[in-house]
Amino acid sequence: MNERNEAVIRTAEDIAAMIPGILSERNVQAEWEVYVEAGRNGSFQIENEELEKAQRRFYSGVGLRIASGGYVGFSYATGLKHGRRGVEELVRKALALAKLGEVEFHGFPAYSKAPAVAGVYDRRIDEIPFEEAYEMAEELAGYMRDVKPSDEYILSGGVSLAVRTVGVMNSNGVEAVESRTMMKVSGYTVKKGERPGDGYSFQTYRHLVSPEDMEGIVRKSLEDAKKNSEASKMEGYTGEIALHPHALASILSVFLPNLMGDSVYYGRSRISRVGEAVASDALTIRDDARIEGWPGSYSFDGEGAPGQSTVLIERGEVRSFLLDETYARLLGMKSTGNGLRGFRSTPEIGTSNVIIEPGKESCRDPDVPMVVKVFGEHTANPVSGDFSLTVDLGEFRGRYFKDNMLTGNVFDLLRNISVIGRDPERVGNFSSPVVISRARIV
Amino acid sequence: MEMEIDVDTDSLIQTAEILANRYGIRYYEVRIVEETFSTVRSQNGRIDELSSNNEIGIGIRAFNGAWGFSSANEPSRVEKAIRTAMKIAKLSKQKPERSGIHVGDPIVDRVILKGRKEVPMEEKLSLVRHTSSLLDVDGISNRQVAYMDSTVHQIYFNSVGSFIETSIPRLRFFMAVTAKEGSNMQQSWKSLGGTVGWELMERTDVEGIADEIVRDALSLLKASSPPAGSFDVIMDPELTGVFIHEALGHAAEADSVKTGESILTGKLGEKIGVDGLNVVDDPTLPGKFGSYVYDDEGIPAKRVEIIKDGVLTGYLNNRETSAVLELEPNGHGRAQDYAHQPLVRMGNTFIEPGDWSFEEMIEEMRNGLYMVGDKGGQVDIANGTFTFAAREGYIVENGEIKEKVRDVALSGKILDILKDVRALGRDLRIEYPGYCGKGQWVPVDDGGPHVLTKAIVGGV
Predict the structure, then answer these.
(1) Which residue of B has its CA nearest to A98?
(2) What pLDDT was estimated at residue B3?
(3) Cα separations (Å) of B194 from B287, B432, B434, B446?
(4) What CATH number is associated with residue A116?
(5) Which terminus, N or C, of chain B has the lesser number of Cβ atoms within 10 Å?
(6) Residue B6, pLDDT above cutoff 80
(7) Which residues of A touch B72 (CB under 8 A)?
């Protein structure tokens, strides 16, 4: 166990040890949960092939939930050192808010130890001296200068390294602590001139990656910028469309809110029950927090429920929702370990790693337009499913296109999936092969 | 002094000075921020979040040819953070050709803005509960109400002797409904806010707004999608706001001009819009959601004319970009909070009104779409392509407003669309608070008059 793990769990234990006394002094019967977090992140920003900004930030804090008389309240404070008076104040505030707001309490999780997921922590990220990380970023900037084809190109990007330790304890006996590391590398290339273009590429990891991997991301952004500058608007088209994992990630972000337990419970989802057919039977989607070394993986969520692999859609039918403890109980289900949070807030339902199960076919048909990247997905309508996104890069019959809009309805698009490709690609915490469905290009 | 951040600033200044000397740092600045806030949210009549907290943190930036930054939220880490920022800056290799920042003269000032009225939590709760009950109507499957207020109290000091204390209140109120009929679902919402206190809620017609969004969501169930393709479009002031934010605002942020990434690089003085088109970003407008007095680099906020009579006349800048591009600093360096470095950001961005009445504009367009409301947008500043989305709209045929259509995104090219503007309404509204994301979130407002232009509509 490293030093930060110890500091975090010691803080949680100290606070947990004080709570029963504080409650009995106040003559209050209550359930409680202590969430503790401490971390550090360093990031390096490269502009015009020069390292321009570097930072190293520290943070820590404690969030407390207290439930009494059927209501729950929350309070938080920054830092890890809180004496008896500090904890009394947190308890007082949480109890007062519970009483005032009448926020209904449905229970904290009760689990024995969550099984550990391998590869969520890399000591090398935690312990890398800042000077060494700085040098690594300088070298990436140097690589950008080396591969810059001409003054028409501007290369930028960044590297960030983070470590975060979280600990949860509650009155049901949950006690969990875990350190997680994260590395993100990005490249952004702009091509100036008569035919401007740009390309953005990124990847996230739980482990320290090699300079070669980082350079690969810069090269990808350069290649995409070249393709983007060659691209032009294509004629309108309606019919079969191949979606690259990047584009599919954007489109799925319009659909996934419909699987969140709170949306379902509060009538904000198009889906109301497990078993509903919502997609083509070629489609299986799962949320999986237990994949070794993946950026969205964790052993337990923000309230101590074990991270798990949850099949959300199986052969087109809804198999489960994404749930935290509260909405699991409200819907009469079991938490899927998707309560995500920081110390400043209570858990909110979110995804870990989202995976579209690959199929068996190839999706390489030059006569089907391939949409590679789109933007503007946050303007789409998750409840109606309507989307109209701007195409950043596509390919059709050997030519690149951009500036068109890709329009459709996400529910229709999922139902019309005809082919799921066989070669998955990971983009951050999302993985999918190319998928073929129907939509319109305007 | 009514408010006081519980930090010994004198000793911090001393510590920073000693460390700057030790590390040979040319310039540094420190922000100590205390944020106090409360939030009340309800969904379908239940309060699902009630919070009230405050937090203090410190952010330090040091410049030595490149920036070093560090932040901390524990008192025991403050000195370490100052040291870290300076050590990082010290690591940077000198790059004399692009290493300038505007330093300027020291500013000593204290500006404490307060809402005219403050109320206890009980009153905020009862507003949320009351509003939620107003939205409890047949056909509405989901209703959300959220109230948020905050006060950001900041002490800024830098190595040339500036010492600026500011306090800014901010309030936001949001209500949304989802209407449902079988598998058909539609949403409508309204958001309001400003750098104000509870007095905003007292002059808000909550009942009227509740009626309006319920009616809207229910009528959208019967609306069809707008047609797809290139159309003449009249935008209402709210859609004009997100339009100009995406179509011009981001590309005029000087950080991307400095790197050369923005399509507006090198275009100062060029005609990029029609005659009579004026676009302004003004953080000094009183009470607006994107308003502030000093930016997070201690520079006074200034009104900037980005486009004057169709000509690109200004970029939004900060200490660094104003020096590199040799422009007058205009105070647009903003940070999400103490743990983030300031970036070049907008404040309140708007198109100035013209002299057309709405009726004249409908008549001028004859056939096209009248699109209303803001659903966000996004821009690719290198390619000059942007998208912006409307909450709903109407088909206009032969100069008459006809059937209602659903939400849709529109898109255009920065260097074309401002030349396609055919009419500017004589109305002006800047009352559409929101948060703009650029790796960090900052509060902004935008707006304008009704505007007639041409865009690609992503309909069916």
Answers:
(1) B50
(2) 47
(3) 5, 9, 10, 12
(4) 3.30.2290.10
(5) N
(6) no
(7) 57-59
Residue that finishes a domain, picked among A166, A199, A228: A228
Interface pTM (ipTM) of the complex?
Answer: 0.92
- Does A54 sit within 8 Å of B66, measured CB to CB? yes
Could you tell me the end-to-end alpha-carbon distance of chain B, in angstroms, rounded to an integer?
Answer: 60
B284-330 pLDDT, tens digit per residue, is 999 999 999 999 999 999 999 999 999 999 999 999 999 999 999 99
- Count of domains observed in chain A: 2
Q: Which of B25, B28, B144, B178 to mutate to test the interface with A (most CBs of A within 10 A)?
A: B178
Mean pLDDT split into 10-residue runs, chain A, 442 residues: 86 95 95 97 95 94 96 95 94 96 95 91 96 96 97 97 97 96 98 94 98 98 97 96 97 97 96 96 98 98 97 98 98 97 97 97 88 95 94 96 96 97 96 97 96
Could you list the residue range(s) of the whole structural domain that residue A10 is in? 3-228
User: For strand A153-170 and strand A71-78, is the pairing parallel, antiparallel, or unpaired?
Assistant: unpaired
Q: Do B57 and A78 touch (CB under 8 A)?
A: yes
Asked if the C-beta of B390 comes within 8 angstroms of chain A's C-beta atoms, the answer is: no
Judged by a CB distance cut-off of 8 A, whether residue A194 touches chain B is no
**What pLDDT score does B2 carry?**
41
Q: Identify any residues that bridge with B147 across adjacent strands, giving them in sequence order.
A: B40, B173
Question: CA B103, B106, B108, B113: dihedral to nearest 10 degrees?
Answer: -20
Q: Which positions ≥6 away from A132 have C-beta within 8 Å?
A: none
Residue matched to tokens 């000195």: B79
pLDDT at B460: 77
Count of structural domains within chain B: 2
**Given CB atoms, is A78 within the 8 Å cutoff of chain B?**
yes
Read off the pLDDT of residues A265-307 as tens digits, 9 standing for 90 and up: 999 999 999 999 999 999 999 999 999 999 999 999 999 999 9
pLDDT at res. A173? 95
Residues 6+ apart with CB under 8 A from B382: A190, A196, A197, A198, B261, B262, B263
Query: In chain B, what residues touch A138 (CB-CB under 8 Å)?
Result: 93
A417: CB partners within 8 A, 6+ apart: A279, A280, A282, A283, A435, A436, A437
Q: Give residue B30's domain range.
A: 9-220
Which of A180, A201, A228 lies at the terminal end of a domain, its last residue?
A228
Give CA–CA dist A293/A306, Å, rounded: 16
**Chain B residues inside the 8 Å CB shell of A155:** none
Identify the band that residue B94 occupies on the pLDDT scale cut at 50, 70 and 90. Answer: low
Alpha carbon of B70: minimum distance to chain A alpha carbons (Å)? 5
CA diameter of chain B: 74
Please give the structure tokens belonging to residue B336: 């999400």
Which of B411, B416, B436, B457 should one mutate to test binding to chain A, selecting the residue with the greatest count of A CBs within 10 A? B411
Do residues A317 and A275 both lie within one domain? yes
A421 pairs with which residues across the strands? Answer: A361
**B438 lies in some domain:** yes
Are B273 and B322 within one domain?
yes
B263 CB within 8 Å of a chain A CB: yes
What does the pLDDT look like over A331-374, one tens digit per residue?
999 999 999 999 999 999 999 999 999 999 888 888 999 999 99
Q: With beta carbons under 8 A apart, name residues in chain A contacting B49.
A: 103, 346
Indicate yes or no: CB of B40 within 8 angstroms of CB of A386. Answer: no
Same domain (yes/no): B182, B329: no
Query: Considering only alpha carbons, which residue of chain B is nearest residue A442?
Result: B229
Residues B434 and B344 both lie in one domain: yes
For B435, residues 6+ apart whose C-beta sits below 8 A from its C-beta are B441, B442, B443, B444
A interface test, pick of B125, B387, B416 with most A CB neighbours within 10 Å: B387
- Let me know whether A67 and A134 are in one domain: yes
**Alpha-carbon span B16 to B329, nearest angstrom:** 25
